[in-house]
Amino acid sequence: MASESGLASLGADGAMAAAHALSLPAEAYGNDPQLEMMWAMKAYQHAEIYFNLISSVDPKFLKLTKADDKIYTAFRESFPDLRIQVLDPEDLKSAEAKEKWRPFCNQFEGIVEDFNYGTLLRLDCEKDYTEENTLFATRIQFFAIEIARNREGYNSIIFSANRHSMRDVQS
């Protein structure tokens, strides 16, 4: 992932205005295209940072939140059979899935900051963020799935691939 634009392209004043706008409650806005673009940029930056992190550090050792253990335990209790290597969007977005996810997500209100903010989630954990491999999810869904992918070893392929490509560059 590479980003030549983003908040940096807004300049200092623009970035400050964006930060202020993003701190206001959603009810303060209609469907403002500029605000939607700022949210998309913020979600993209989060995705870029996370992918760089799992490329650089063995994901088995990552701690994403102070509540990782609680999130992982609750996730696997609520979704013991959810296939996380390659997600089916229906497992997160269908009406039936939303009914299961809602109580799971809401239990983290006040525990995980911005638990219900939107973020980007990779469908196939062996691939980078692309338009075809990305789903918009809540932050707690992202944490639950990525913590599980890290602990269960599914994100290790990203770290290993990056380590091998770094060796090739050094050779």
From TrEMBL:
InterPro entries: PBDC1-like_dom_sf, PBDC1_metazoa/fungi, Polysacc_synth_dom. Gene3D superfamilies: yst0336 like domain. It comes from the Eukaryota. Pfam families: PBDC1. Transmembrane segments: none annotated. Residues 35-158 form the Polysaccharide biosynthesis domain. One of its GO terms (cellular component) is cytoplasm. PANTHER family: PROTEIN PBDC1. This is Polysaccharide biosynthesis domain containing 1. It comes from Scleropages formosus (Asian bonytongue). The lineage of its organism: Eukaryota, Metazoa, Chordata, Craniata, Vertebrata. The gene is PBDC1.
